[in-house]
Design brief:
Length: about 300
């Protein structure tokens, strides 16, 4: 895979320490609109009530700090976190794979229940396990983009780095004929820098509305109970298809928890549908739909 040149990154983005960058053609986000309103309000208050001048900016900064903590909050960019609440259907999504131990076992379980899932995969693992990508495809499941490296500090990276992470994963999946339209930020944290990266990559942000806080399958005991006490129609369910650490029987424990969830979904008449159907959008698109600005990251 050809490395991206530093000049390519600089040609698409100018340095900005706050990471609020905006390329031509991207609509203003709620955050950017709020910032403009806060700045305008500060100017007005400077003449009317000087003592209140700091309040709009303090309020704006507070929202910016808290917004990343809410996965479904479309503050920095549009985020899909659930489908219609008046239809008894949900979507299953699995992050951080594919995994040579967990993914084959999960595919077998999904086949037993005839459920379709969306796998939000990491580019590095796609390169490492191409046979698992083919197995997921053969089983009729869908793919989402979950970054290339799943860097634990990815939310602090520049927009150019984030765009590269997205587009490198797109490139890895394109070798299998797969072109996802959905991207899920690692850890589900929404930060301003993703707005520009999403615009350049042509991807849509999808998070979740139901999760078990399983810590990437490091906390699988009681997973079914935590999910089933909160799941409701329209939910996008976040799970993981990574092998639980520790003894081999932990994989069986994880599968048993998943089976409890799958059985309960059928019993509650909650239909499992593809993510694209839940979001009224296709999970695949033609590679040619990528914006011109994004193409040089792939070359």
């Amino acid at each position: 895979m050809k490395k991206n040149s530093g000049n390519a990154g600089r040609s698409a983005f100018s340095y900005n320490p706050l990471l609020f960058q905006r390329s031509r053609g991207r609509a203003l986000s709620r955050a950017e609109k709020s910032g403009l309103i806060a700045a305008g309000s500060t100017g007005i208050l400077a003449f009317a009530v000087p003592i209140l001048v700091p309040l709009p900016l303090v309020f704006f900064v507070l929202i910016c700090i808290l917004a990343p903590l809410f996965p479904g909050f479309s503050f920095f960019y549009p985020v899909i976190s659930h489908g219609r609440r008046d239809v008894r259907q949900i979507s299953l999504t699995f992050d951080d794979g594919p995994d040579p131990v967990a993914t084959p076992a999960l595919l077998a379980l999904l086949a037993r229940y005839e459920f379709c899932a969306t796998f939000f995969v990491n580019g590095t693992k796609v390169r490492r396990h191409p046979e698992l990508v083919e197995a997921i495809l053969a089983a009729g499941h869908e793919f989402g983009n979950h970054s290339y490296s799943h860097d634990g500090c990815i939310m602090f990276r520049s927009p150019s780095r984030l765009a590269q992470e997205m587009l490198l994963t797109q490139r890895c999946l394109a070798r299998h004929g797969v072109h996802p339209v959905f991207f899920r930020p690692p850890v589900g944290v929404n930060v301003p820098a993703y707005a520009e990266a999403l615009h350049l990559s042509g991807l849509k942000a999808v998070n979740f509305s139901c999760r078990a806080r399983d810590m990437g399958n490091r906390r699988v005991k009681g997973l079914a109970r935590r999910i089933l006490r909160q799941i409701q129609p329209g939910d996008i369910l976040l799970l993981h298809d990574t092998a639980p650490p520790g003894a081999p029987h932990n994989v069986q424990l994880w599968l048993a928890e998943l089976e409890q969830i799958f059985h309960a979904l059928k019993k509650r008449h909650l239909k499992v549908v593809p993510l694209g159907a839940l979001c009224s959008s296709s999970c695949k698109k033609n590679h040619d739909d990528l914006s011109e600005d994004s193409i040089h990251f792939l070359n």
